[in-house]
Each structure stands twice: as C-alpha cells, then as structure tokens.
Fold this protein.
Amino acid sequence: MPHDVFISHSSKDRLTANAVCNRLESAGIRCWVAPRDIIPGEGWSEAIMRGIDGAKVMVLVFSENANTSAHVRREVAHACDHEITVIPLRIRDVIPKQGLKYYLDELHWLDALTPPLASHLETLTTRVKNILNGEQNAEVRTPLDKSVAPSSPSKPRIVSPLKLAVAGALALVIAAGSIIFWLQPKSSEKPGTPAQVASPNNTVPSLVTFPDGIQVKLGGQQTLLNDQDLGLRDIAGKGVAVIENEPSKVRVLFQAMNETYLVTGTDFQHLTSASKVLGSGDHGEFDNAGAGVASVIRFDQNLYAFYEGRDTEGDLPENGQAAFRGMYCGIGLAESINDGTTWTKKGEIIRSAKPKDWSDWSGQSVRGVGTPSALIDATNTYVYLYYVEFSGLKNGIQGICLARAPLNKGAPLPDNWQKFYLDAFNEPGLGGKETPIIDGSAIKAGAMYPHATFSKALNKYILTFNFSRIAEARQEAALSKSGIYIALSDDGIHWPTPVKLITTYSQRVLGLSIAIESTLVLDTPDSLTGWLLYAYTPKYTSNASIPGAPLHLAGRRIEFAKH
C-alpha cells in the first residue's frame, strides 16, 4: 500500500512509534512502520529498504535506544543517501553518537521531552503535512547542547555532494560487510520471532529462558475439572479469579457458559463444590446475555470482581466458526462485602470507543472490549486493568490494552478509570481511545485473553495471554505462531518481547484443539512455583453439531528460576 512516511525506531520504543503512526494516520498521512507493514515471508532488510524507498519523509523516534541501534543508523544512512527528508523526534535527552551525528547534525529537531506526548505529535503532524505539501518552513535547528551552535535559517534540506559520496561509500561497506548481520535476529532491535517451544500435540519444552536469564519450566498437563464436573460446562471460559489459595482451602470464581460460579476445594486438584454467584443483566443492559468474571482484587476489606458483560440484543451477525450469537462486550465491576459469597454489580467501567453498530469487517461477530484482568500495582497506587479491544482494529488484529484507577479515589468504580493512550493514561474508561501495549502485528496475530499477576520473588509483572493467527485458525496456514505466551515487565506498562510456552489453536473454532485463558496462580505471593491454569479441549464443540467437548479446566505446574 502507498505511504508517505517511514517511521524509524528502536523496537524498545515501539509504543511511541505506534503513537506517532496513529496520530499521523488519523490526519490522513499513510505511514510505514515495522513490524506492522512487513509482508509475511519477506526478508527484514528487504522490507526496511522497500519501506524507506517508498517514503517522502522519515520520522526518526530518537532515544538512547535508537542512539545505539545499528539498524536505526543504517536506516538513517539509507534515507540520507536517497535524499529523503528526515525529521528527528527526540523523546529522550540524548546527544547523537558519532555514527548518527554525521547525518543528523544539520537537521531541525523536534523535541518531545516533556509530557504530554500528544501535543508534540500535533507539531510533528503539521511539520509532515507542510513537507508533503511542498511548504518546508525554514526553521532553526534546535541545538542539542551548548557546544553546538544553531544553524542559520535554511532551505529545504539538501545533502552535500561530499556527504552523499561518503554516505554512498558507507552504504557500500555496509552492503558488503553486513548482509549476514542484517539477516541474523538481534533481540535488542528486531522484534524477535517467538521461539518454537511446542508442537501441536500440546507438548512443551523442558525449559524456556528470557533474555535477562529468568527461566520458566512447565510440568505435564493435568485435567482439574472435566466437562460436566460439578454440573458445569464450558469451564473457565474467562480464566480463573482467585479469592483464596491456602494449603488446605481454595476459593475461585470462573465463568461456566455465560455465568459466574464460586468454586471451592482443598486445592486445584480437588475442587468439590460450585454455586452460581453472578448472572446476566436485564434487557437493555450491557450484560444482558452474560457476565463472566475473569479476575478479582481485595481492597478495603471488600472484594471487587471484573467481568466481561455480553450484549446480544440487536442485529449482530452469528459467529459461524464457533457457533455462537454475535455480541457487543463491555467490562463491568461487581462488589462483595462478605468475602465472595454474594455479589452486587456496580456498573460498567470500560467501554469501547466504537458503538455496537460499528464493524471492522462484514460479519464481525465479537465487538467492544472484554477479557479483563486486574491487579493492584506493586506500589499500591493504582488498579491496573488489562483487556482486549475488539472494535476499531488495525488490520483486523486485536490488541491487549490497559486502563488504571487511582486507589486514592477509593474503590475502582465507574468514572475512576483512565485508558492508556499515546504513552499516557489520558482517555476515559467509558468510551475513550486506547493504544495497545501488546499486539501481534509482527506475526499477524491477535493478542487475546490477558491475565496478569505480580511476582514479589522476581520483582516482575507477569502476563500470560494467547496470540491467535486467524490464517491458522481457518486452516489456511500451518499451526506455528498461535499459542500461549508469557511476558515479563518491570512496570506493568511496557512489555518486552514475550516467549511462547505452548503451541495451540487460540480461538474457539468448531473441531479444533484449543487452550486459552491461561492464568498464572503462584503458590504464595513470594513463591517461584505455582499453577498455569487454562481452558482446554482436544476438539472444541459448543453444541451437538459436531462431536467433541466444551472447554474444561486444565493446568500445569510452573516454576521460575533466577540466574
């Protein structure tokens, strides 16, 4: 697809690059950004060169990460060599290293060092529009330190013949000596391809290792509740929300069919009772067709459960792949003042920016927002809520988004929530816009079913979720990228490249073996061991149309190690 702007960035600054892309494209300026615009099967270096060569402007997201990136340096060199206008957007107070300084020294900089980012993106958008319209304003370059004097007002940037010759020679050196370097994966810059860690028969490797040395080991799969155990079907369809996990007593909430049950036992291998505690709302309400709790927190002696509410009223298309009615989802809150025995709904807290009648493609059956996972952050300042945006998607790919509610306002009630958008929490929970914190653009897969926890032992936030590649679910491509993934974060907001734990189909499709809604439950808050629980079926069915089994609760022991 034609584009005007190439966005050069380190993969560590992906969220900012996506924010730049979103703002420019909302102004009608088509962008090329990796990994979104890399064609499946296309070589990385080939795709980058294609993206730069097709652009009129390069926006460089400049930070300490870009400053040390060999990939960014080559991209800038290639743009200058082809007389493409480069606009450095500086998001960190850093002076370019010599390799980049050579190319950037004569350019006008845009500083975006002070929040909010959105205001700087408005300036950037205006600048790009002017350039594309042939109205390059003569402006003084912003000096980066006192030793660098500002240049006088100048004409539109033209690279000198000497610099072009040097750049051309450098490009030849790079081409001759770095072809293998470009083709080798660089975990610090290229979005890494998740390791192939399991085969379609649901086996797992003996050990998975993160770049920082933290290791994860999974045990064998165990069936914890069969279909129809305790009278339940389609078990743990939204994950497992833990109220209590003691050596001789377990109490959890989870969805069965479209309702939520309180399930108890002595441990996860011995769950013995279930009672319905939350059901559908009334006609006209956002949860008129279902209320499935996905997580629970304790605050001020009370429990707060976060659930996906389903609205099937109106003319929504049926989902033929999974044989269920179309739905528009929202996220609701319920409160218990008696330790989980009974619950009172407190209203909808997160709603999509897109209304029910909005669709991204003809026949879109699931819309809105859903699959919530909440936790209190490590500083006891906010409730973080991870969720999936189903509507207003880019290229039809779902992303995991984030909202938060400050605890100094009390309980996380409606109107206390702000969505994460353009690198800040600045949009209302009810109807605001969002920027995904995890998406599957690099592997053309939707990021779905997030479940988060915090490990005191690792001092890390841990997120388990699924990537689901629609071509694989439709049997148009071999099963390879879809599966259960795990990611670690220092702040719960920025998530480095995840790794895959289990290769499996990751969305409800009749006849397929699936494993979804993986929930990490540590044995104790300080423990490095626990359970990875998930909803599983060897052959999915939701009715009598084909033989098979609805989802039922499975799990694996999980162990972390620090090295």
Remarks:
- The domain at 208-561 is CATH 2.115.10.20 (Tachylectin-2; Chain A).
